[in-house]
Amino acid sequence: MSSPTLAPRAETGATAPANPAAVARKARFWDRIARKYATDPIADMAGYEATLARVQGLLSAEQTVLELGCGTGSTALRLAPGTRHFLATDVSSRMIEIAREKLASNPVPQLNFALADADAPEFAPGAYDAVLAFNLLHLVSDLDQALSVAVQALRPGGLLISKTACIGEMNPLIPYLALPLMRAIGKAPHVLCFKQPQLLAAFARQGLEVLSVERHGTRGKDIRAFIVARKPS
User: pTM for the whole thing?
Assistant: First the structure.
C-alpha cells in the first residue's frame, strides 16, 4: 500500500473543481473560530466514545485511511495508531495548525495532517481503504460533490464511514430561522438541511452500498446519523 497522498487536481478524473470563492469563505469562517473550537468540550462524550470504538473496529493496521474535515485533529490522533497510514485533512489552515501542534506533543508515526477541501478532487484516486467524514457532510458546499470526491479516493471495496448531523430533523425554527440569522451575522457556517432519507439517497446516487445506519447519541434526541458504506468492488 502507498502512503497517503494528495494528488494534483488534473489527475483525479472528472469531478468538478470547487468554487474558489466558496472555499475561501469556508476557510475564513473556520480559521476565525479554530482556537475556540479546539477548547470547546464535546457535548456527548459517551456518544463520541461509542463512535470511536465502532470506527476502531472497522479499521486495521493494514489500512491506509483518509479523514475529510478533521478539524483540530482530536479524532485522528485517537484512530491513527490502529492504521498503517492516516492522512487527516481540513479546509482551515488554523485548524491544521492546531492539529499539528497536538501531533508534535503527542507523536503518532502513522499520522499526517494536510490542508485540503472536502469538496475538491485533491486526493489520489483509489488510494484509500477507508475515508472518514465526521460532522462534515452537512457543512460541505455540495453533498453529491463531496461524496463523489470521497468515493473517487476509495479503492474498490473500500469503506466510507461518516457521522452527519441531519439538520432537517431539528425543530424547523432552527434550520430555517435561527441558522440563517446566525449565518447572516457570521456566527454560523453554511449548512445543508437534510434528513436521513435524503442523506442515504445521496449515498445511493454515488453507487455506495450502505452496510449500517446507527445513532450513537446518549443525551436527548440524536440527529447524527452514523453510516458505514462500501464502494463496489
Answer: 0.91
Alpha-carbon gap, residue 87 to 214, rounded angstroms: 25
Residue 97 inside a domain? The answer is yes
pLDDT in tens, 37-73: 999 999 999 999 999 999 999 999 999 999 999 999 9
Are 105 and 79 contacting, i.e. CB atoms less than 8 angstroms apart? no
Question: Is 151 part of a structural domain of the chain?
Answer: yes
Q: What is the CATH number of the domain that holds 119?
A: 3.40.50.150
Rounded Cα distance between 206 and 79, Å, is 26
160 in a domain, yes or no? yes
Full residue range of the structural domain in which residue 220 is found = 9-230
C-alpha grid cell, residue 201:
439517497
CA 117 to CA 21: how far, in whole Å? 12
Find where cell 452514523 sits.
226
Q: Quick one: pLDDT band at residue 163, thresholds 50, 70, 90?
A: very high
Say what the alpha-carbon torsion angle 72, 116, 111, 66 is, to the nearest 10 degrees: 110
Listed in sequence order, the residues at least 6 apart from 49 whose beta carbon sits closer than 8 Å to its beta carbon are: none
3-state secondary structure of 81: helix
Residue 4 within a domain: no
DSSP-H helix ranges across 67-214: 74-79, 93-105, 143-153, 173, 179-184, 196-205
The DSSP annotation for 200-223 comes to HHHHHHTT-EEEEEE----SS---
* Residue 133, beta-bridge partner list: 68, 162
How many domains would you assign to the chain?
1
